[in-house]
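Researcher: Please translate sequence to structure tokens.
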Amino acid sequence: MDTPIQQLDYTDQATKQMLENVRKRKKKFDDIKMWHYLSVYATLFFAFIFTVYFYITFIKPFSFSFLAMLSAVLNDTVAVYLLAFTIVGFGAMNLLKQQKEKKEKEYQELRCEIVDRSKDLWKKEEEWKNRHIVFEIMKKQYDINLYHEKK
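Model: Translation complete:
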């Protein structure tokens, strides 16, 4: 369990475990989000490089015949590799997007559950009055908003 969550006052062990789980899910979501954006930029980069290379190497010299251009493209390993990297990047980008949406859904569901069950999690009067301290720590330390259900 992370140190700031472990040192929280006005929360019982089960609540601390729920906060730790939402922290872990937020971290997984942030990590996959970063990888998704990286894959988007890498795919765009390879697509741009492939387009420029294709134009300079094949369209300018072989614009008179489509079959000559196709033959030259298939014989050029650099063009094939650039196209393959672009296609693989596009596939990875879509796969990471699906994973990102799944991780975001899991994170949001648990976060909303904590918001919904806050009356049950902080039952005692003293805990209820001081729960805002827990919410502030979660917001400052981990950028997790427990004040509202909306994103």
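Researcher: Any highlights?
Model: The radius of gyration is 25 Å.
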